[in-house]
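Notes from the pairing session

We agreed to fold both candidates in a single pass and log them together. This is the raw record for the first candidate, unedited. Please don't reformat it; downstream parsing expects exactly this layout.

Candidate A
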Amino acid sequence: MERTHPLDKFHYCPVCGSGAFIINNVKSKKCSHCGFTYYANPSSATAAFIIRNGCLLVARRAKEPAKGTLDLPGGFVDMDETVEEGMMREIREETGLEARSLHYLFSLPNLYEYSGMIIHTLDMFFTAEVDDDAVAHADDDAASLQWIPLSEVQPAHFGLNSIRRGVERFIKELLPRP
């Protein structure tokens, strides 16, 4: 993915409409007409490792980017919700499961292509506990769900860069050992 200025598609000042909206530094543009400065900060995103009976719950992506590849339940945090609330909502929306508890693991920066733009994200990874008898069903951004034995999880099958790196890290550093 080509790295360009995060605001390269923004040509006009959002305050005064001037075309004098120029690069100020690596993450901002400034209007030389009215003085407004806009910073492109990362969007918050989440991903959950849901493990039951030695298997990891994975989704098959229903939409681009990386449509058809494996993914973890998760997504963007909405305004006015905490990261934990966003993680719980995404699990519910994509799997129909209610998480009993979350445990924060780590975060990774990411570049996510959406609508022809590169969105900088900060992806936060959690483990989530669900009831043993709860039945998962795919919805929202998930085309399908499957439980994969932890010993058979292949990071290369995950299409999004940060999710693939997160799965690699989880397997290498954090995977519960028998």
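Candidate B (folded immediately after A)
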Amino acid sequence: MKLATRSWGEGPRTAVLVHGLMADSRTWRPVATAIADHGYRVVAVDLRGHGASPPAASYGPAELAADLLETLPAGPDLAIGHSLGSAALLLAAPALRCARAVHCDPAWLPRPRDLAALRAVKHSTWRELRAAHPRWHDDCITDEKQALAAWDPQSVTALARLPGLPVRPEVPSLVLLADPSERIPPPAATTLRRRGWQVRTVEGAGHTLHRDDPAGFLHGLRDWL
């Protein structure tokens, strides 16, 4: 599927951004301009069933990865994926031929989830979102409310087909974690380091690192931009 995209900057290098479940390309607004300022043309996708991209019959990470390959420019200098978007990027990275990849609190490991409760988030009010995300800027709350309106809640089925903890990075890769991370607990982080992944933590940040603490997120990317 060809995905809708949003872009920032006109630099000589290319960075591609892949959002997580329920969000869309607007999730990157707190950090996209700063990334572009490092000399990138930044291209962010709306995954299938999110944002301006149409819904689909299936939402497995393999299908999401195929969409990335159909949509994104090949050979980006940097690829960043968050949560479920990181699972898709993990599968797409070798064929995408990215020079470097950053996985932000990645949804790689299956864990018990109440899928009905996740679907119900679609109907959250602005005030409920503000209470759930006290560190986000008001503009991010508004963006999230609009993203939820467009989101296909059936996409939560992707969480039943996550790829698991990867053996080794196919490209030079950084894993940037929340503090604490529910997606990659400490034993898994230790395993990743042993397997050749660089792992860092954004101190005090929740799962959506780039909205909770944009400055901390960008600091976590030091020497990767």
